[in-house]
Amino acid sequence: MILDEIAEKTKLRVEKAKQKIPLEEMKRLAAEKNADTGFPFEKELAKETISFICEVKKASPSKGLIAAEFDYLRIAREYEEAGAAAISVLTEPDYFLGSIRYLSQIRNEVSIPLLRKDFTIDEYMIYEAKAAGADIVLLICALLGKEQLKQYIGICDSLGLSALVEAHEEEEIRMAVSAGARIIGVNNRNLKDFTVDIQNGIRLRKQVPEDCFFVAESGIQTREDILELEKGKVNAVLIGETLMRSENKKAMLSELKGVPYGEN
Description:
Elements: H1 2-20, H2 23-31, H3 40-45, E1 51-56, E2 59-60, E3 64-65, H4 72-81, E4 86-90, H5 100-107, E5 114-117, H6 123-132, E6 136-140, H7 146-159, E7 162-167, H8 170-178, E8 183-187, H9 199-205, E9 213-217, H10 223-231, E10 236-239, H11 241-244, H12 249-257
Helix pairs in contact: 2-6, 5-6, 6-7
């Protein structure tokens, strides 16, 4: 299972990171950042129109190298200028060629919320995300037990971070709701075999309480996809490969939003 492989490598990565910066020191670095944030990402999701989370991603296990030329700072600025509600930054280095450094540098370039997209298997990674300037942390139900998920959401709350809790099936939706998730994302890509079904998010949206924000992730390619998701009462979409493969990311985002190019 690729997810298990990634989780094992992530554990080794975290242990190495702790040797350089111990947990207590990372907590101190996180505490230096403002915890009274007002949760800006959730304010974006509360808007009537669907929100766009645009991803900065160099590679993926299913698609290999996506962006040979990877000017992540320019890409992030373009996303913000084109009206993105938030930017997702891959920080997993082995399979996605990401880095926590990308996130901290992008934080200096844009003012909109940043999601640390990684495979969070240790509380250390939450404090590390905060210290690097993240506003949102991804928590994947398939990697965490219910009590661990609840604990991690609590840590996020204490730091002023939003937790995007990712589920793939009804049982995980129930787990997320029970743990107190305010934002639930459904990945249309099955992380076990990487097949994509955009209807997965629409089906599972019905299992999520109305007072929870809902994010559809992966496999979203066209304006028609967006319209279908809007009908399904999705609050936001996370789009990666479609934008990363586009030569004109501003124009592509405008097309997906259904607005003339140049109007946010």
